[in-house]
Amino acid sequence: LNIITNAFTASKDGGWIKIALEKRDINTVAVTICDNGTGISEEDLKHIFEPFFSTKGEFGTGLGLSITHEIITRLGGKITVESTLGVGSCFTLILPRTKA
Ligand SMILES: Nc1ncnc2c1ncn2[C@@H]1O[C@H](COP(=O)(O)OP(=O)(O)O)[C@@H](O)[C@H]1O
Ligand SMILES: [Mg+2]
User: 3, 47, 59, 76: which could join 53 in a potential S-S bond, CB 3.0 to 4.6 Å?
Assistant: First the structure.
């Protein structure tokens, strides 16, 4: 939810957000959330998963991605990001099958 909210915030009117669910192998799914919003600078990209890093001033807490990173890691998964300033961003969540 935080990743989708971030994508909305970064989007302009008429922008798009694409969410894909992909089966990588028998034990792994990948969720990809892409937007064609503001994108993230190379310098900011180094910091976005750190607690309290935000470019939104009083409107941001900077906790969303650090908490998301923690949850995904604890589940045994992985979160990656690709982004280009002025072009957009893609976040990929790799999630392992949980034991029933
Ligand atoms: N889809 C995105 N497009 C552009 N910037 C993003 C995107 N997702 C995250 N960011 C950047 O990462 C920062 C940290 O995000 P987050 O941890 O969710 O905190 P917050 O949303 O409170 O700022 C944001 O302030 C923003 O600079
Ligand atoms: Mg956020």
Answer: 47
Give the residue-averaged pLDDT of 74-84: 97
The model's pLDDT over 13-26, given as tens digits with 9 standing for 90+, comes to: 999 999 999 999 99
Kindly report the protein residue whose alpha carbon is nearest to atom 19 of ligand 1: 62
Task: Please say whether the beta carbons of 100 and 34 come within 8 A.
Answer: no
Residue 60 near ligand 1, beta carbon < 6 Å:
yes
Asked if 84 and 2 count as a contact pair (C-beta separation under 8 A), the reply is no
Which residue, chain included where needed, has tokens 């180094």? Answer: 46
- Pocket residue to mutate for ligand 1, from 6, 43, 47, 83, most atoms within 8 A of Cβ: 6
Longest dimension (CA), the chain: 43
Distance CA 14, CA 26 (A): 37
d(CA 47, CA 53): 7
